[in-house]
Design brief:
The complex is a heterodimer.
Chain A (H helix, E strand, L loop, with lengths): L1 H14 L3 H23 L2 H17 L8 H23 L17 H20 L2 H12 L4 H8 L3 H23 L1
Chain B lengths: L9 H4 L2 H5 L5 H11 L3 H18 L16 H26 L45 H50 L6 H18 L7 E10 L18 E10 L2 E8 L4 E5 L2 E2 L3
Helix pairs in contact in B: 5-6
Classes of the chains: A mainly alpha, B alpha+beta.
């Protein structure tokens, strides 16, 4: 609650033109937006560009931001990602090459290795999903959005959100079971 | 476990994710729970879906390979530049107005001059004041227009700059400054004119009549018509220095006054005698009443 209040306060200050407050918001939300874009685009460079564009758009339109900043950022980032997906699809670059290994989390080396392996398995399984299903699962499970919020971010009807999340999870389950065999 | 047959229902299976997420209505939830009690396949699937949800939720957030770089907001910058330009232009105007030579202030007629004119006086005395046109909206004498505009530009530019830089607080400060500047400007430029020249007792009646006439013509309250100057004048004839074309006047020296009154930003010049007659003189011609 306190954190939410402080983010709200930072947003209000940023709306009044306080660049330092907005930079703190960028630092706070940058990983979430980048991770989101990366799941949507399957390409870290493209995701970094989309993240940059989303934050620039937020800075330029900060006065018009209402409600949850992260959801607003995701919505803008998703539009940027969709633009890029269209261009990338045309250039047949989607999904080419595997991303670099993420850094191993702190803790016991063996556990860390297992966790990193498990995470990589999940990431690969996610990448195998259809883009819309992956987007639905990422928004619901990684970022914890309710179905109505996902509908607002993606512009999909509620029934579509529900079915895409379910099909996405079924697809993930199948992919993970296949990798286990 | 319940002894019921294990009947899988694909329609209900499609609701399992929404059930897991707490996104079903009470009725749907009840239906799913009833089904789960009798369907092993759906129970296993629900457990798997929960594990999948957990695995995705456990994925760490990643940092972008390069940090986000924010540009300065162009509109803000533009407004800031415009505000600064207004401040500089305002200061320039104030400076130029202070440095440039100003026209000598119009001397107020000393009280001694308001004494009855000597019969031997051959002509009117000091008449140096240019006649303003009734409809031209001429500027009040003594108001330093460039300085006033400069002060307005400087103060409002500062207000705009503060508003853009510091938001509402800046706007508030700017507005306070603007109000102060305007009040100060009004006091500075108008203060000298708020005091009317002294009116000798013998001229009070004619000045009151002039003031009332100007107010009537302009549809204003007489209190808003101010006397700017009052001069004792010996008019060369009974036209009071403002002859109507084609009309003849008695060639006798007529003592009277030149009274300049101001309503709004415009000055009006009246010529009077001492008996209560007066004429509003516009470009040397009497104006119809």
């Amino acid at each position: 609650m306190g954190a939410v209040d402080s983010y709200q306060l930072l947003l209000e200050r940023a709306k009044r033109g306080d660049a330092a407050a907005f930079e703190r918001l960028v630092a706070e939300y940058q990983p979430a937006v980048f991770t989101f874009c990366r799941h949507v685009l399957n390409d870290p460079d493209e995701a970094a560009d989309a993240t940059q564009e989303a934050f620039v758009a937020a800075w330029l339109k900060i006065g018009s931001i209402r409600g949850d900043l992260r959801a607003w950022l995701f919505k803008v980032a998703l539009n940027r990602c969709r633009d890029r997906l269209r261009r990338l699809t045309a250039a047949r670059r989607i999904g080419s090459g595997d991303p670099p290994e993420p850094p191993a989390p702190d803790g016991h080396p063996e556990e860390a290795l297992l966790a990193a392996e498990r995470q990589e398995l999940v990431r690969r399984a996610l990448r195998e999903l259809e883009p819309d299903q992956r987007l639905a699962v990422v928004l619901a499970d990684l970022f914890g959005y309710a179905y109505t919020e996902i509908a607002a971010i993606t512009g999909w009807p509620l029934g579509t959100v529900r079915s895409r999340i379910h099909r996405g999870r079924l697809g993930l389950r199948a992919a993970l079971l296949k990798r286990r065999e | 476990m319940t002894g019921k047959p294990d009947l899988h229902d694909p329609d209900l299976e499609a609701l399992l994710s929404a059930y897991l997420d707490g996104e079903l209505s009470a009725k749907e939830r009840q239906t799913v729970e009833l089904h789960l009690a009798s369907c092993n396949r759906c129970r296993e699937l629900l457990a798997d879906l929960e594990r999948v949800k957990y695995l995705v939720a456990a994925l760490p957030l990643e940092s972008p390979p390069r940090p986000v770089i924010l540009p300065r907001r162009p509109v803000r910058r533009l407004v800031e530049l415009a505000a600064l330009a207004a401040v500089l232009a305002g200061l320039f105007l104030i400076g130029a107005d202070a440095l440039l030579p100003q026209p000598a202030p119009q001397p107020m007629t000393p009280a001694a001059q308001l004494a009855p004119a000597q019969p031997s006086g051959s002509a009117e005395r000091t008449v140096t004041r240019p006649q303003p046109a009734l409809s031209s909206g001429s500027q009040p004498t003594g108001v330093r227009v460039p300085a006033l505009i400069g002060a307005g530009l400087a103060v409002s530019g500062t207000a705009a700059f503060l508003a853009v830089r510091f938001g509402r607080v800046g706007l508030l400060l700017g507005l306070v400054g603007l109000a102060g500047g305007l009040l100060g400007g009004c006091a500075g430029t108008g203060g000298g004119q708020s005091a009317e020249p002294p009116v000798p007792p013998e001229a009070e009646r004619i000045v009151a009549a002039v003031r009332a006439d100007a107010a009537r013509r302009l549809g204003q309250d007489p209190a808003r018509v101010r006397v700017v100057s009052l001069e004792a004048v010996d008019w060369p004839d009974t036209s009071l220095g403002c002859p109507e074309q084609g009309k003849f006047y008695a060639q006798v020296i007529t003592p009277g006054y030149r009274v300049v009154v101001r309503a709004g930003n415009t000055d009006y010049e009246y010529h009077t005698d001492r008996a209560g007659n007066f004429v509003l003189c516009i470009r040397g011609q009497p104006s119809a009443r």
